[in-house]
Amino acid sequence: MRLGPRGERSNRPNREDTGDVKPNPCRMSDPRSRREFIVDAGRLALGAALAGPLTALTQATPPTKVDWNQLARNLDGTLLMPGSPAYTEATLIRNLRYAKNLPAAVASVKTARDVATSIRFARDHGVPLVTRSGGHSFAGYSTGPGLVIDLNGMTRVTVDPTTGRMRCVGAATNEDVAVAGQPHGRAVAGGQCPTVGIPGFTLGGGLGFYMRQHGLAIDALVETEMVTADGKVVTANRAEHPELFWACRGGGGGNFGINTSFTFQTFVVPAHVTIFSLTWKGDACARAFLAFQELLQEAPDGLGAVAHFAVDAQETGSPTPTLRVFGQVASMSAERTERMFARVEARAKPIERLFRSETFWAAKEWLAEDTGPPNAFAERSRYFPRPLGRSGAEAIVDALSRAPVRTGNGLSVETPFFAWGGAVNRVDPTATAFYHRRDLWLQAVSASWSLEADPEDVQRLREWQDTFYQRMARYGSDRAYQNFVDPRLKDPLRAYYAGNLARLRRIKRAYDPGNVFTFAQSIR
Ligand SMILES: Cc1cc2nc3c(=O)[nH]c(=O)nc-3n(C[C@H](O)[C@H](O)[C@H](O)COP(=O)(O)OP(=O)(O)OC[C@H]3O[C@@H](n4cnc5c(N)ncnc54)[C@H](O)[C@@H]3O)c2cc1C
Questions:
Q1: Distance from the alpha carbon of residue 349 to the mean position of ligand 1, in angstroms
Q2: Which amino acid residue places its CA nearest to atom 5 of ligand 1?
Q3: Which DSSP string corresponds to 227-245?
């Protein structure tokens, strides 16, 4: 889902490309007035249908047409109802498996006050609510049957050149952050998918190619403004609401409130970095992986890398496993980087290799891989605190050679191993809500398919994915990355939060006693 050919830009129209990111013009230019979005009589039944857990908790009354109209009038932004083009655009999500889970309405908010108004409305009327920023939740957690509070209409990114702090308001994306930082020669440790939203990405940790040098996105978070379940706008940092601030650094999106801004301490980008890419096929993949794993354990923090296993589909018979190790090294020449990799190449000769010096921004562009348009996918993940042995590496290659992928059957698989360590691991597992601080790898097992694929093929693909995932259990931990949400996990909260779960539960009870922010894997 992340690491295909380059060029992915959006499952939504582009924003204006300026440092001060304006609300997406397409989203704001719907010619109809707010009144025309007002719910029609036929949709009134929705109110009753929506009366879910919140109603039971608060004894709220389901919203009537008049109530929805009142909400529309109370917003500085716009209430989008089914049938409008803006509603259709606002409900597009990355994982098409969940695209039919459409909301009763979308509050396209403009201010924190709008967010508070929307939360109160949902509480008063027992309407389930979810927050939406980039829409990239693997499990579609930013859509649902009730009210979606969409922050895209308030997006703005600004950099204070004196302090080097960057403030991301609303639903800024990785791309917005890069565009805002470039004129100042500054960056935050963002991810490589341009359209991922900073809110979801940050709340779950935020991994990327700079993390071994600069830490996760949360490690640079200075403060966040958020609206809590009682509709209050609060600032959380080390001094104010410190427990909430702790929870927002890895406690996962959608759990504690709605974060309307994030302020990061940026880093000064190096003038040059070296990008590298080496590819192997077939049995050589296991040897190459083990050789790179040795290098990784001694490599400087400036190395950011992914060991990306995938397959070459064949017309008939088994697909061929491939391994591409790629990434960047900060402040190291191409020649030195090549010398560093010589020991890997000596163990397994790559079929393709590249080492090139680039500017930081050109490298960022090169590393921003295309994931194509939205598709259907399922992803599982696992942390590995210790190096994999030969049998572990061979198990990966063996599993890939059994993937039910054929030319033209619309299925694909990949299993990237994200190189962990460095600055990420120098933070104590309990210093933030992000527990995974002693690992060497994060593996994702990704399966995706076109909506036209044969359902039996898709079933086989999912079985293959589960079998492979289980097979890797003996080599790694039972922890998973909270940003790669996985509905198939038996004990998701333990997998995501491990030793920090009890504290997160206490914070949840303190800030959201009525469980207003709830979804399938929310903290409870
Ligand atoms: C193509 C692709 C590439 C990815 N690449 C990376 C990567 O390089 N590194 C990485 O770490 N992760 C990556 N991810 C995972 C990504 O970080 C998570 O899916 C993240 O949750 C997406 O955030 P979002 O704002 O785009 O999504 P959304 O679906 O809008 O939100 C995700 C969750 O956060 C909640 N949420 C959204 N906004 C807010 C808010 N303002 N306040 C409180 N809760 C909120 C939502 O309700 C939902 O539960 C990738 C995902 C995809 C699909």
A1: 37
A2: 193
A3: E-TTS-EEEESSSSSHHHH
Which atom of ligand 1 lies closest to the CA of 200?
Answer: 23
201 lines ligand 1 (CB under 6 A): yes
Give, for ligand 1, the residue of 93, 196, 364, 442 to mutate: max count of ligand atoms closer than 8 Å to Cβ: 196
Burial class (CB in 10 A: 0-12, 13-18, 19+), 163: exposed
Q: Which residues contact 118 (CB under 8 A, 6 or more apart)?
A: 71, 75, 107, 109, 129, 147, 149
Q: How far is the CA of 141 from the centre of ligand 1 (A)?
A: 9
Convert the pLDDT of each residue in 273-304 to its tens digit: 999 999 999 999 999 999 999 999 999 999 99
- Identify the structural domains of the chain with CATH numbers, from first to last: 25-153 (3.30.43.10), 155-269+499-511 (3.30.465.10), 272-480 (3.40.462.20)
pLDDT over threshold 90, residue 212 = yes
Q: Is 381 in the pocket of ligand 1 (CB under 6 A)?
A: no
pLDDT at 445: 98
Q: Report the percentage of the chain scoring pLDDT > 90.
A: 86
The answer, yes or no, to whether any atom of ligand 1 lies below 6 A from the CB of 118, is no
pLDDT, mean of residues 35-54: 36
- Strand segments, DSSP code E, in 256-407 are 258-265, 267-268, 272-281, 303-312, 320-330, 352-359, 376-384
- Top-confidence residue, 10 or 46: 46
pTM to 2 decimals?
0.91
- Is the CB of 197 within 6 Å of ligand 1? yes
497, two tokens = 């939060």
Contact 223, 207 (CB under 8 A): no
Among 398, 419, 472, residue whose Cα is nearest residue 294: 419
Print burial letters for 398-434: b (CB count within 10 Å at least 16), e (below 16): ebbbebbbbeebbbbbbbbbbbbbbbbbebebeebbb
Distance between CA atoms of residues 1 and 5, nearest Å: 11
Ligand 1 neighbourhood includes 522 CB (under 6 angstroms): no
- What tens digit of pLDDT does each residue of 414-425 get? 999 999 999 999
- Residue 364 CB–ligand 1 contact under 6 Å: no
Closest CA to 332 of 212, 192, 178, 206: 212
Q: Among the atoms of ligand 1, which is closest to the Cα of residue 258?
A: 42
| Pairing status of strand 147-150 against strand 105-108 | parallel
Specify the DSSP element, H or E, that contains 471: helix 455-471
Report the Cα 196 to chain-centroid distance in Å: 6
In this model, does residue 208 exceed pLDDT 80? yes
Q: Would you say residue 23 has pLDDT above 70?
A: no
